[in-house]
C-alpha cells in the first residue's frame, strides 16, 4: 500500500515534527497509525496514511454512518436524533452568518444528503459534492439530489457561491492547502465559509488520549484546534469571524470511545463524560468536542 509521509507541516511549513500519539483504527482494519505534531505551530496530523487513491477501503464498513445512514445500535439511534435537531440549527446558522435567507450554497462532503436537502427545501440553490458513490445514490433515491463526485469541485466557476459548508469533512481531505485555495476562489467577495471539525484540544480529547474516537485514523488526516485552523485560514486569505461549539458531539464521541475501549455500559459512561465535556464547554467554548468555524474573505 502506498502511504503519504508528511515531511513539512501543512499549516506553517515547519519541519520540526515529532510523534505524539499512537492510535488504532477501530472501524475497519484494526491497524495502528501514528499522529505527529509540529513543534513550531502545534498542528497535529496522521502520519503515513494511505494515499487518496487507496484510502477508500477504510470507509467500506456498514457502521460508517455518514455514508451508510445506519440506525443499528443505541449510539447510531442517538446520532440520528441529534442530527434532526442539528439540521435546523445549521440552517439557522447559515442564514444568520450569511445575512441572507436564500442564495447559492455548496455543501462539500454531503454524505447521504440530509443537510443539502434541508437547505434546498429552504429555498437555497444547492450544489452538493460527495466522494462515496453509495452515499450519492442514497441522496438521489431519498431526496432527488443530483450529488456530484468530488472531481467536480474543479468544474465550478470562480465566485460561484455565497456560502460553502463542510460539516466534518475538512479532516478527511488530503490536498489540504489546495482545497483552501479552491474555497477562496469559489466564494463571492462577501461569501461565507463554514467548517465544522473535531477539536483535539477539547475536554474529551484530553481525557481519552489516543483512544479518542474523533481521531478516527486513518480517515481523519488532520486534527485541528481553534488556533491551528485559524492559522490555516489566514494563510489562504480568510479571517475567522466566529466560532460556535457543537455540544452534542461530545456525547456521541464519548460513547463511541467507551465502546472502542471495551468498557462496560459504554452508553452510560459516555453520557457522563459527555455531560462533563458539555459543562467545560459552557465555561470555555474552545473546549467543545467539535467546533463550527465561520470564515470570511480578507478584504
Overview of the structural elements:
This protein is α/β, with parallel strands linked by helices and 299 residues long. The protein has a single domain, classed as 3-Layer(aba) Sandwich (Rossmann fold). Helix content is 35%, strand content 23%. The chain is built from nine helices and twelve strands. The strands form three sheets. Strands 7-6-8-9-12-11 form a six-stranded mixed β-sheet, sandwiched between helices. It has a four-stranded antiparallel β-sheet with strand order 2-3-4-10, with no helix packed on it. β3 and β4 form a beta hairpin. α2 crosses α3 and α8 runs antiparallel to α9. The longest helix is centred in the first third of the chain and has 26 residues. The model has no long low-confidence stretch (mean pLDDT 93). Pfam families: Methyltransf_23 (PF13489).
Task: Provide a concise account of the structure shown.
By secondary structure, the protein is of the alpha/beta class. It has helices spanning 65-68, 73-98, 114-121, 133-143, 176-186, 203-208, 226-235, 249-260, 266-283, and strands at 3-4, 17-24, 32-38, 44-47, 49-50, 104-108, 125-129, 161-167, 187-198, 222-223, 238-245, 290-297.
Keywords:
transferase; 299 residues; Class I SAM-dependent methyltransferase; 6-stranded mixed beta sheet; Rossmann fold; SAM-dependent_MTases_sf; alpha/beta; 9 helices; methyltransferase; 4-stranded antiparallel beta sheet; 35% helix; globular; methyltransferase activity
Amino acid at each position: 500500500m502506498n502511504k503519504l509521509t508528511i515531511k513539512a507541516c501543512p499549516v506553517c511549513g515547519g519541519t520540526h515534527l515529532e510523534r505524539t500519539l499512537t492510535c488504532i483504527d477501530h472501524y475497519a482494519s484494526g491497524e495502528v497509525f501514528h499522529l505527529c505534531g509540529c513543534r513550531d505551530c502545534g498542528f497535529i496530523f496522521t502520519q503515513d496514511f494511505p494515499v487518496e487513491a487507496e484510502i477508500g477501503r477504510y470507509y467500506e464498513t456498514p457502521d460508517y454512518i455518514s455514508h451508510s445512514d445506519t440506525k443499528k445500535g443505541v449510539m447510531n439511534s442517538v446520532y440520528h436524533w441529534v442530527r434532526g435537531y442539528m439540521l435546523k440549527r445549521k440552517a439557522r446558522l447559515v442564514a444568520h452568518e450569511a445575512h441572507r435567507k436564500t442564495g447559492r450554497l455548496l455543501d462539500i462532503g454531503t454524505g447521504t444528503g440530509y443537510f443539502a436537502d434541508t437547505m434546498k427545501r429552504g429555498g437555497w440553490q444547492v450544489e452538493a459534492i460527495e466522494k462515496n458513490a453509495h452515499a450519492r445514490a442514497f441522496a438521489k433515491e431519498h431526496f432527488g439530489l443530483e450529488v456530484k463526485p468530488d472531481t467536480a469541485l474543479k468544474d465550478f466557476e470562480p465566485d460561484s457561491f455565497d456560502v460553502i459548508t463542510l460539516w466534518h469533512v475538512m479532516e478527511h481531505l488530503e490536498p489540504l492547502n489546495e482545497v483552501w485555495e479552491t474555497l477562496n476562489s469559489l466564494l463571492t467577495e462577501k461569501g461565507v465559509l463554514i467548517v465544522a471539525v473535531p477539536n483535539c484540544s477539547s475536554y474529551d480529547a484530553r481525557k481519552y488520549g489516543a483512544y479518542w474516537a474523533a481521531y478516527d485514523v486513518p480517515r481523519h488526516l488532520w486534527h485541528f484546534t481553534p488556533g491551528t485552523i485559524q492559522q490555516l485560514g489566514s494563510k489562504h486569505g480568510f479571517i475567522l469571524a466566529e466560532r460556535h461549539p457543537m455540544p452534542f458531539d461530545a456525547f456521541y464521541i464519548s460513547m463511541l470511545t467507551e465502546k472502542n475501549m471495551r468498557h462496560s455500559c459504554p452508553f452510560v459512561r459516555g453520557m457522563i463524560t459527555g455531560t462533563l465535556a458539555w459543562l467545560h464547554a459552557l465555561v470555555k467554548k474552545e473546549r467543545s468536542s467539535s467546533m463550527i468555524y465561520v470564515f470570511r474573505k480578507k478584504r
